[in-house]
Amino acid sequence: AQSVTQLDSHVSVSEGTPVLLRCNYSSSYSPSLFWYVQHPNKGLQLLLKYTSAATLVKGINGFEAEFKKSETSFHLTKPSAHMSDAAEYFCVVSDRSPGAAGNKLTFGGGTRVLVKP
Amino acid sequence: DGGITQSPKYLFRKEGQNVTLSCEQNLNHDAMYWYRQDPGQGLRLIYYSQIVNDFQKGDIAEGYSVSREKKESFPLTVTSAQKNPTAFYLCATTHRTSGSSYEQYFGPGTRLTVT
């Protein structure tokens, strides 16, 4: 079984300040972890993914995330927020156990980011 | 949004009517998925199909039906048995990037409103 908890449903930051979105997961097997971003009434866009290579993963638009197995966390950060970062962000886990049918993804509840000028 | 097309973008129906949402892909991906998204919640899996003529129930399949007659197409029917059909519906495909690593690609979504 696998699950994802995004610790903040809303995050508000000022433009130019750092962004931190927190994510904790549980998985029976070595997981793949993803962050997706969704702008209003749009589909989801992949920001970055972790698949057991480097624990610090760099993604698009200046985002990065660090996989910490001991803390079962995969927090997303960006050093300086931009107005265009205002969106909803989803942390996602994929169970890579043998026979994981269809590579089902389990989504966190989402974190909505507001960027103030 | 890549090579996944969902139509229409907005759909309105009266309660008691069945409605079919379209999902087409030209990515040549084998696996396709349907998710439902409600406000304040993450995506929940309705149905998925790993290959033509085969599909499996996801976590919330009740009140929905699908077909997979062609690799490119995976339509979702929301039946009158679905108690709360108003939601944002997202179609996705899966691509294997290496070994056991996969990525999912999402369509732009269809917002269904039932009154």
Word description of this protein:
The complex is a heterodimer of chains A (117) and B (115). Chain A is an all-beta fold. Chain A is built from no helices and 12 strands. Chain A has strands at 2-6, 10-14, 19-21, 23-27, 31-38, 44-50, 56-58, 64-68, 73-78, 87-95, 105-107, 111-116. In chain A, the strands form 3 sheets. In chain A, strands 2, 5, 6, 10, 11 and 12 form a 6-stranded mixed beta sheet that branches. A 4-stranded antiparallel beta sheet of chain A has the order 3-9-8-7, with no helix packed on it. Chain A starts with a strand and ends with a strand. With 115 residues, chain B is mainly beta. Chain B is built from no helices and 11 strands. The chains are: A mainly beta (117), B mainly beta (115). The A-B interface holds A 4, 9, 32, 34, 36, 41-46, 49, 51, 90, 94, 96, 101-105, 107-110 and B 1, 4, 6, 9, 31, 33, 40-45, 48, 50, 56, 58, 88, 90, 92, 94, 97-98, 100-109, 111.
Give keywords.
heterodimer; A: 117 residues; mainly beta; 56% strand; globular; B: 115 residues; seven-stranded mixed sheet
Short account of what is shown:
The complex is a heterodimer of chains A (117) and B (115). In chain A, 0% of the residues lie in helices and 56% in strands.
